[in-house]
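Progress against Task 2.4 (sequence-to-structure conversion) is shown through the following example record, which the project officer requested during the mid-term review.
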Amino acid sequence: MTSLQQVLALQARTFEPGAKCPLDGIRVLDLSRLVAGNMLSLALADFGAEVLKVEDPKKGDPLRDWRESGPEHQDGVSAYWKVYARNKKSLTLNLRSDAGKDILKRLIVDADVFVESFRVGTMERMGFGPDELLRLNPALVVVRVSGWGQTGPYADHPGFGSLVEAMSGYAAKNGFPGQPPMLPNLALADMVAGLYGAFATMVAIHEVKVNRGRGQVVDLSLLEPLLSILGPDAATYRITGEVPAKTGNRTSISAPRNIYRTRDGGWVALSASIQSMVERLFGAIGRPDLIDDPRFRTNFDRRNNVEALDSLIQEFISKQTLHESVEFFRAREVTIGPVYDISQIVLDPHIVERGVLVEVPDNDIGSVPMHDVVPRLSGTPGHLRFPAPQLGQHNDEVLARIGIEAEARVALKRDGVI
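Structure tokens generated for the chain above:
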């Protein structure tokens, strides 16, 4: 099979607007912008929640402008928007106008979740602070996304993910020894916060729907979720008195763990984090004697002699191609895998056969690959129901539902309210 044929072999998916999903009936008003809120609402939308993106009539969500340019699309196509706004609807609403605020109030009454990511204090100045939202709808789950949280000395500071990735300790421990701190090349803080936020939202919905409780506020910062996944650094610092150091592709917990160059210029990742795997590795490279070498006998010994250990492994792998190395170690049940970029990911037979990435119809470029619904549920799966919306695409549908007639909608558009 040629590379092109393999790319085309990505599972083709059509949108299923009427697919039954486990969160059918949950209504989400998403006033957030950029990544964290969109990640949160995507997780809900993929499982059936009706997510209504409330956007500025002129600009829309700034995520629409995160565009990837190509030779046939000089104005760019927002891959971020296509992926993270799928399964959502768009309503344009000028919240600086009294009419826009009135429409929002009417939508809040029937909503289950309200998501916003404005700078701290903005919603209160607009007349939509938590007290007012919960007065309008006592069962509402109000998710407030911010960089640093709604309280504390930094609450009113701008909270972009890059700043959080720097101040959380992530950048300081990322990268190689002796090199500057390194930020991630993706919206890591936002993505992690979005997933935490989806979990928190479902906890709060459970309280309302199952426990017959009241609505509440979810104070979702970007800082705390990211800090929570960085490992027990605070505990380690208290116990050892040492700041965790950058380790590159190694880890301070176990050895060996690194990436290694193959004969044909590829890279493989190998990890042997338990003693039995180390013994299997040493046997595979024809050096079972190394397990009795005082430099490598225990995990502690191996960590203290990691340069020598990595040198031995690198010497062996450098004589194999990437394919040979992966096949060799897999056959001997040693934990190894290739280092891929996206051009290789889309060709991998596991990715293709399992449908990790799927090909969905797209008006701009014919079809576009994106990740399928994550995670997979056997009894109540999520579905791809419709593509990312055009700005204001669902104005008529949504406004008609709350009793605004066609003539009034025309007037609202003329006056810049929608």
